[in-house]
Amino acid sequence: MRSLVVGGTGFIGPAVVRGLLAVGHDVAIFHRGEHELELGEVAHVHGDRSRIRDHRDAFARFRPDVAIDMRAMTEADARGTVDAVRGIAARVLAVSSMDVYRAYGRLQSSEPGPLEQLPLTEDSPLREHLYPYRDHTPAGIGQRPPWLDAYDKILVERAVLGTPGIAGTVVRLGMIHGERDTQRRFYGEWKRMADGRPAILMTERAWAFRASRTHLANVAHAIVLAATNERAVGRVYNVAEEQALSYREWAALMAQVMGWKGELVAAENERLPAHLRDDAHTTYEQHLVGSTERIRRELGYAEVVGREEGLRRAFEWYAQAPAPDPPGDEKAEYAAEDAALVTLRGSAVLKG
């Protein structure tokens, strides 16, 4: 088979490309040319994805069986890819997110109503309000990207699954960590452990929050399975670990991996420094846990990297590529945390 990967040089893409090569695919990557994968077996097509339709001739010469869009953030992105390969490839696979579910709207306080039933299956209700980030920038994203106002994976999925003349597949990812993750999802805890801090403080609600997560290698494996299996045509799959740990359980596992002996401290929101208080947009009572039974049953998916190994890989990368622009003054934040810890211990409200 032949696979075209759109945007395959960033976070998850290189692992997908290697996975496709490992199962014998011929692979071409469409990207801007700013980062080249050092894989001689891969063909490269350079261009701006906003003008991806201009490259139909190059795609036709490569003759892909499937196009895998790693970075369709907007409806325009998805429709561009579909139009560029329709009549050339038999199928488009889009990488989506569990933020399509109505539960995410509850979590972000953008949709009123009762808490959603968990776990979320692929048939669970989707958000009723589009464009979830028009009013705020999600935590973990530094400079606001220009496409964020138009971001919505619901519209991406509709374009991929609902266009006549080409089949579609969607994989909905939970929260992904690992090397090359520009959001550095576990960086704050890793940095404090690496710096030998005596404690890590967080609100009780944030410590208890559960979300579906996994390492990037597991996601790449799932994408390769879905792209290479005809049973995945027209299907939607959640991808994450079977069990969703609380953030406190993740932090305890990080401590084990790091050999850190400090305390994990829970406190009420108002007793913590401002930089550790709960995001005003987030309602942590709504957890974001997806069922992955479908992809395991239909495609035989199973993790290829365990939790501890996934964290080790992420932490090794953090050490090699520290955050370029820390969001705050580290010394001031540490001093505020020390002061809060003294107050908490003095008032006997410390919760380990």
Describe the structure.
The mean pLDDT is 93. This protein is globular. The chain has a single domain (2-346), classed as NAD(P)-binding Rossmann-like Domain (Rossmann fold, 3-Layer(aba) Sandwich). Helix content is 34%, strand content 15%. It contains twelve helices and eleven strands. Helix 3 (75-85) packs parallel to helix 5 (153-161). The protein is an alpha/beta fold.
What are its keywords?
seven-stranded parallel β-sheet, two-stranded parallel ribbon, 352 residues, alpha/beta, 34% helix, Rossmann fold
How many β-strand stretches?
A: 11
CATH class: Alpha Beta
| Average pLDDT figure | 93
In order across it, which strands form the biggest sheet?
A: 3-2-1-4-5-6-10
For the CA atoms, what is the radius of gyration?
21 Å
Structural class: alpha/beta
Shape: globular
Query: Helical proportion?
Result: 25-40%
Count of discrete structural domains:
1
Parts with pLDDT < 50 across at least 5 consecutive residues: none
N- to C-terminal separation? 53 Å
CATH architecture: 3-Layer(aba) Sandwich
Explain the layout of strands and helices.
Blueprint: E1 2-6, H1 13-22, E2 26-31, E3 43-46, H2 56-62, E4 66-69, H3 75-85, E5 91-97, H4 102-107, H5 153-161, E6 167-173, E7 175-177, H6 187-194, E8 199-203, H7 204-208, E9 213-215, H8 216-228, E10 236-239, H9 247-258, E11 263-267, H10 293-299, H11 307-320, H12 330-346
Helix pairs in contact: 1-8, 3-5, 6-9, 9-11
Overview in brief:
This protein is of the alpha/beta class and 352 residues long. It has helices spanning 13-22, 56-62, 75-85, 102-107, 153-161, 187-194, 204-208, 216-228, 247-258, 293-299, 307-320, 330-346, and strands spanning 2-6, 26-31, 43-46, 66-69, 91-97, 167-173, 175-177, 199-203, 213-215, 236-239, 263-267. Helix 3 links the parallel strand 4 (66-69) and strand 5 (91-97).
